[in-house]
Specification:
Elements (H helix, E strand, L loop, with lengths): L1 H11 L2 H25 L4 H18 L10 H17 L1 H6 L1 H4 L7
Length: 107
Amino acid sequence: MWRKHRSLLKHALSPQVVKRDYSPLLMKNAEQYLHCLVKRPKAFLEDLKRTVAESIVTLTYGRLRDEQDRDYIQLNSYVVDTSLKVLKGTLSTSFLPCVTSQAGFPE
């Protein structure tokens, strides 16, 4: 099974396929980011995160919204934010003491 996956990935990530299939999308997103950068220079990091997320989601799913017209990026942000709140909470540190020793978590 892994050989089949490796073969598919080798083809999908070959320079010819990347140039032919991914370059137009990446160039379009880079252009949009530059426009955002000119309009809102102080929001460069937020716009960069959104641009990178849009590129990944579009390459992965082929679209930015699900069947119920929800934004995949907003859904993902919600899941990540909620997960981080749970991990940082006192309940998780009671059950997972190793979490408190990880960088970025208050002790």
